[in-house]
């Protein structure tokens, strides 16, 4: 499949991630960059809300009901906006010039992101070769098969032995809508949604944050999108590790949420959202971000802590200066006490215990970890020297500009968390890093949310110095002496200094889990298995239930062709029937219990694929019964290609003396 053929899926992915939310944003009274920047967050909210409502109402997950929920929600928002028009009138739009600059600035970012994705993934239908991908592909398949995308029931993937539990299903809901809207495969839809998040949602969200920081500064708006897709840790780091697609979506929404925080704390410059509207939208932003991934909520909390504290201290100081000293002290002291209590409460919540106890061995010394954070080179990635210079310049300037000092605190906090995870990771440090699985990759991905605005400030500073100190510019055309033009010139100079905006580094980050899979870890679905998928799609009935070993890539193969696997993931608790089949399926000809278990599950097929993934992991040994039949008679070979074989269980118990 060519990328040109996948273009409709990519456009539809971007439309689902932006369209519903922009409609709701306009209904709520937002305009321009405020509406478009907040659009993805509200789209995620609408898709996730629709999924829960439809599941509760017994409505099958499909395109039209989602659009219906969106339309009804927008209508309610319009009514509320009219009722509260005096309190929160619609926001004024930015000048048309600002809007055109923002639109034009998105184009190179979208194209640069597309280049990285195309070169990094290879073909648009190429499957991701990581442990987490097994769950995510299977989850999308489960959504399409079950007709439910609710985050409240997604976790067990339909396994009746596991109680329904929350799992952030926004990414899976959006990806399934792309499949339903275009008829493409799950693999193509997943890659299209990944591109749309990295190249469209993330730059849009970051545009809103920078717009709230610096106001109607077209120079800043012109350079923000390209800078956003240049950093490796995010978005590309999460496309090359895990793979963490829900995390990718959640963190891409955080800048917009942070922009709303600046509005709510009166720290935004020429605010485009509005303080009252931001306060009333707080629940929408929190729920939407949480449905994308709870990690994103905690990341937003860490970054938002600093503008929030500035607002609290300003309020306390104002009270103190006005003669109400004890009230001022109470406001500041009470806030700090509440924040400390919340941190203690969250760090001890039992629901986060499995997350807190995840262990990743330290791999750096603390000084080296700090150095990696300063060079934007976490987890052994190459240093982004040119970008890091801009970031460090931005840090110095942020200290000089009081309204931007919170960026320094946010940058220091992320560096602190990364250092704990990468170089220490002890039980006492997990009180800080536990909600991110104590994982340095997830924490490092937060850094660009702060680093991009700092780099923008650095570009604006250099552009201003060019305007003031280069005499030749006085003889240049007036258009080339504008702040926007000079900022663009700085970005053009960054192109060779960063070796093409570090596209090679970012491509290499993705290739490792698509094209250049680590031979030591093996691959889930190799080329022979990919070739077998077409045959598998032809011979397997649409309602087939297939017994498989999830460690041999079969779960992904079945998910991509939308067939139900008995074992859709490599590490879920299984029911009694599933466990028995995992241990004894090959004995179907002589063991009546196998037949009983298979009948209860509706399983009539067995798929054997190439076992090449994580052979060192002891969990791969949990499926000894899924192998070549030990006694002939029960299975019929339906299709094969080398070691890849599909059997039909059509004469179960045929050799058993008890049957």
The number of helices is: 26
Percent strand equals: under 5%
Helix content: 55-70%
Please tell me the overall pLDDT: 91
Output the strand order for the largest sheet: 2-1-3-5-4
The helix/strand class is mainly alpha
Distance between the termini: 49 Å
Count the domains: 2
User: Would you identify the regions where 5 or more consecutive residues have pLDDT less than 50?
Assistant: none
Instruction: Kindly provide the radius of gyration, computed on alpha-carbon positions and rounded to a whole number of angstroms.
Output: 26 Å
Label the overall shape: globular
How many individual β-strands?
Answer: 5
* Major sheet characteristics: 5 strands, mixed
Q: Can you describe this structure?
A:
- The protein is mainly alpha-helical and 659 residues long.
- It has 2 domains: 3-511, no CATH class; 527-649, no CATH class.
- The protein is 62% helix and 3% strand.
- It has 26 helices and 5 strands.
- It has helices at 3-27, 32-57, 63-83, 96-121, 131-146, 170-182, 186-214, 218-228, 232-239, 245-264, 275-292, 294-321, 325-348, 353-356, 366-374, 385-400, 406-423, 430-433, 440-444, 447-469, 483-497, 503-511, 527-539, 554-560, 576-584, 592-601, and strands spanning 545-548, 564-565, 605-608, 635-641, 644-649.
- Strands 2-1-3-5-4 form a 5-stranded mixed β-sheet.
- Strand 1 (545-548), helix 24 and strand 2 form a beta-alpha-beta unit.
- It is globular, with a radius of gyration of 26 Å.
- The model has no long low-confidence stretch (mean pLDDT 91).
- It holds the Pfam family DUF6541.
- It comes from Lentzea xinjiangensis.
- Keywords: Membrane, Transmembrane, Transmembrane helix.
- InterPro entries: DUF6541.
- The chain crosses the membrane at residues 35-54, 66-88, 100-122, 177-210, 217-238, 298-316, 328-346, 382-399, 406-424, 444-466, 478-497.
């Amino acid at each position: 499949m060519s990328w040109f053929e996948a273009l409709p899926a990519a456009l539809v992915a971007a439309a689902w991630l932006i369209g519903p939310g922009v409609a709701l944003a306009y209904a709520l009274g937002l305009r321009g960059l405020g509406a478009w920047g907040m659009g993805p967050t509200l789209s995620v909210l609408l898709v996730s809300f629709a999924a829960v409502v439809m599941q509760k109402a017994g409505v099958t997950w499909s395109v039209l009901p989602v659009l219906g929920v969106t339309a009804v929600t927008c209508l309610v928002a319009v009514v509320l906006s009219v009722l509260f028009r005096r309190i929160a009138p619609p926001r004024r739009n930015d000048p048309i010039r600002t809007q055109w600059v923002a639109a034009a600035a998105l184009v190179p970012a979208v194209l640069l992101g597309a280049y990285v994705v195309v070169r990094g993934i290879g073909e648009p239908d190429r499957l991701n070769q990581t442990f987490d991908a097994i769950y995510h592909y299977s989850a999308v398949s489960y959504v399409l098969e079950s007709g439910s995308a609710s985050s409240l029931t997604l976790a067990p993937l339909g396994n009746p032995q596991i109680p329904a539990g929350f799992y952030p299903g926004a990414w899976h809901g959006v990806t399934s809508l792309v499949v339903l809207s275009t008829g493409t495969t799950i693999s193509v839809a997943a890659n299209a949604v990944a591109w749309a998040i990295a190249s469209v949602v993330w730059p849009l969200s970051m545009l809103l944050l920078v717009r709230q920081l610096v106001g109607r500064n077209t120079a800043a708006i012109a350079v923000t999108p390209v800078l956003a897709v240049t950093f490796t840790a995010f978005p590309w780091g999460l496309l090359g590790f895990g793979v963490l697609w829900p995390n990718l979506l959640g963190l891409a929404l955080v800048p917009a949420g942070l922009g709303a925080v600046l509005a709510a704390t009166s720290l935004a410059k020429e605010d485009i959202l509005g303080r009252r509207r931001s306060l009333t939208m707080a629940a929408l932003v929190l729920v939407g971000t949480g449905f994308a991934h709870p990690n994103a909520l905690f990341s937003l909390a860490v970054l938002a802590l600093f503008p929030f504290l500035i607002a609290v201290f300003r309020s306390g100081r104002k009270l103190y200066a006005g003669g109400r000293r004890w009230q001022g002290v109470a406001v500041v002291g009470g806030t700090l006490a509440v924040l400390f209590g919340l941190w203690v409460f969250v760090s001890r919540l039992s629901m986060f215990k499995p997350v807190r106890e995840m262990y990743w061995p330290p791999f750096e010394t603390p000084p080296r970890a700090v150095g990696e954070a300063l060079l934007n080179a976490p987890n052994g990635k190459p240093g982004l020297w040119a970008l890091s210079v801009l970031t460090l310049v931005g840090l110095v300037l942020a200290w000089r500009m009081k309204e931007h000092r919170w960026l320094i605190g946010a940058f220091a906090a992320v560096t602190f968390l990364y250092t704990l995870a990468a170089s220490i990771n002890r039980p006492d440090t997990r009180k800080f890093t536990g909600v991110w699985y104590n994982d340095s990759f997830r924490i490092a991905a937060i850094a660009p949310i702060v680093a991009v605005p700092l780099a923008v400030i650095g570009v604006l500073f250099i552009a201003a110095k060019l305007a003031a100190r280069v005499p030749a510019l006085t003889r240049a055309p007036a258009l080339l002496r504008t702040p926007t033009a000079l900022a663009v010139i700085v970005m053009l100079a960054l192109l060779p200094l960063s070796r093409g905006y570090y596209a090679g580094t970012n491509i290499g980050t993705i290739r490792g889990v698509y094209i250049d899979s680590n031979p030591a870890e093996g691959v889930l679905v190799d080329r022979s298995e990919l070739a077998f998928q077409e045959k598998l799609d032809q011979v397997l009935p649409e309602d087939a239930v297939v017994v498989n070993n999830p460690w041999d890539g079969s779960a992904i193969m079945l998910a991509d062709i939308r067939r139900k696997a008995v074992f859709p993931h490599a590490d879920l608790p299984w029911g009694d029937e599933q466990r028995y089949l995992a241990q004894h399926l090959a004995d179907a000809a002589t063991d009546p219990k196998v037949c009983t278990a298979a009948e209860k599950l509706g399983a009539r097929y067995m798929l054997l694929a190439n076992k090449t993934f994580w052979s060192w992991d002891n969990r791969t040994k949990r499926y000894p019964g899924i192998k070549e039949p030990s006694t002939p008679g029960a299975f019929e070979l339906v299709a094969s290609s080398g070691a890849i074989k599909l059997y039909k269980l059509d004469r179960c118990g045929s050799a058993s003396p008890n049957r």
